[in-house]
Amino acid sequence: MMATPEEPPQELEELDASTATTVEQETSRALGKETRQVLFAVLLVAAFMVLAQFITPLKAWVTNVQTWKEMVRQFGWGAHAIFMAACAGSVMLGVPRLPLCAAAGLVFGFGEGLVLSLVSSTLGSYGAFILSRHGFRRAVESRAEKWPWLKKLLKKPSVLRVFWVRQLMVPGLVLNVLLGMTPVKHTRFLLGTALGYLPLNVAFSLVGSGLGKGSLTTTLTQLLSAMAVINIAAWLVYKVMKKQKANG
User: Fold this and answer.
1) Which of 131, 171, 128 is CA-nearest to residue 150?
2) 155 with 183: CB under 8 angstroms?
3) Which of 9, 16, 32, 234 is least surrounded by CB atoms within 10 angstroms?
4) Among positive and negative, which fits the CA dihedral 96, 233, 194, 162?
5) Is the dihedral of CA 85, 86, 89, 90 positive or negative?
6) Which residues contact 131 (CB under 8 A, 6 or more apart)?
């Protein structure tokens, strides 16, 4: 195995003014896009479930979802293992994780779907991280040139910065490879990634789970909860960003 360099001290490196401004702009843009993505998914599911109350074929689809979920429950832990393996492998190869989170919520329900999607997407990212540490990164390095400021942000990657970059509009595979090229410890990568994935995983698991509910009230409650989660997460990231800029 290739030896990884020793990690530098944990203190955050100050960013130059130009890089700090770019990071602030990219963070604000990413948070806005995340909010729009969740809002679009929420409105789409809400419209579908409202129409399902009046259109027989759609109502039958909702009933079928309940039947499918019962079949999955009868299959037991095998269904969980198959989903986790497929999700982890897909994320490792660069497939966006959010549709997988929604699918997990739809098939397994919110609680189980959230745990399965969070664990498997984190493990998939970790797989790409490990491959990057062993040299499998050439194809992705050229894509990373689109974000030169990102390398500066990740020069001394703490858990906080790993969490932070997971909120940005950068493909997960690119982030996994870039982090693999840094001296970040495995535990910090895993913790920062899991925490960084958590807000959107919660939101999309709620949305997916809401799509298969027999009660419109329950669906709307979950959709409103998804919007609340992403807005709270956006506010927290924005506060952290402002604090980092002030300290820098």
Assistant:
1) 171
2) no
3) 9
4) positive
5) negative
6) 92, 137, 180
With the C-alpha atoms ordered 191, 194, 198, 202, is the resulting torsion angle positive or negative? negative
Determine phi and psi for 146, rounding to 5 degrees.
-70, -20
Nearest Cα to 234, choosing from 203, 205, 209, 210?
203
pLDDT digit string (tens) for 152-190? 778 878 898 899 889 887 888 889 988 988 889 999 999
Residue-wise pLDDT tens digits, 69-82: 777 777 888 889 99
Q: How many CB atoms lie within 10 A of CB 190?
A: 17
Report how far residue 192's alpha carbon sits from residue 8's, in angstroms, rounded to the nearest whole number.
17
Residue 207 contacts residue 222 (beta carbons within 8 Å)? yes
Cβ-based neighbours of 114, under 8 Å, separated by 6 or more: 101, 104, 105, 201, 202, 205
d(CA 93, CA 121): 11
- Within 10 Å of residue 43's Cβ, how many Cβ atoms? 11
**Are the C-beta atoms of residues 87 and 193 closer than 8 Å to each other?**
no
Q: What is the pLDDT of residue 1?
A: 41
Q: Are 104 and 83 in contact (CB under 8 A)?
A: yes
> Which pair of tokens denotes residue 61?
């689809």
Q: Is 0.85 topped by the overall pTM?
A: no
Asked whether the beta carbons of 134 and 1 are under 8 A apart, the reply is yes
Closest CA to 178 of 211, 222, 145: 145
239 half-sphere exposure, CB direction, 13 A CA radius: 6
Cα–Cα distance for residue pair 237/80, rounded to 1 Å: 32
DSSP run (H or E) holding 55 = none
